């Protein structure tokens, strides 16, 4: 008997965009439902309800952050691209942007017990 994940998972479930949150949200959005399915003894209704409760705020922050960073990384006008490039060449500004991103994208994840060995 295998575990079947929801039809939409990973960064697709969180709506990550050009903002660079795809890999992180994919890992988080795979870890949590697997742990919740194990915790709920395979009861997918309970597991997915808890998954949504745990990750909805994280997903919403990622989506909102993606809206902002998308406009920054893919500006509409050439002046925006030149401004972006100038900012990214300055280590202090880059460090500041990365720290701000950590505050937006942070998530406290549950610790799940190790899975039983598969036969």
From TrEMBL:
Kindly give the Gene3D superfamilies that the UniProt entry links to this protein.
FAD/NAD(P)-binding domain (3.50.50.60)
Q: What is this protein called?
A: 2-polyprenyl-6-methoxyphenol hydroxylase-like FAD-dependent oxidoreductase
């Amino acid at each position: 008997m295998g575990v079947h994940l929801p039809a939409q998972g990973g960064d697709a479930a969180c709506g990550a965009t050009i903002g660079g949150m795809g890999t992180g949200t994919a890992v988080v959005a795979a870890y949590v439902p697997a742990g919740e399915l194990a915790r709920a003894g395979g009861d997918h209704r309970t597991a997915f309800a808890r998954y949504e409760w745990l990750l909805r705020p994280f997903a919403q922050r990622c989506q909102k952050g993606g809206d902002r960073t998308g406009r920054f990384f893919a500006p509409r006008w050439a002046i925006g691209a030149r401004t972006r490039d100038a900012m990214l060449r300055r280590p202090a500004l880059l460090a500041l942007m990365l720290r701000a991103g950590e505050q937006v994208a942070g998530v406290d994840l549950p610790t799940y017990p190790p899975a039983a060995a598969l036969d």
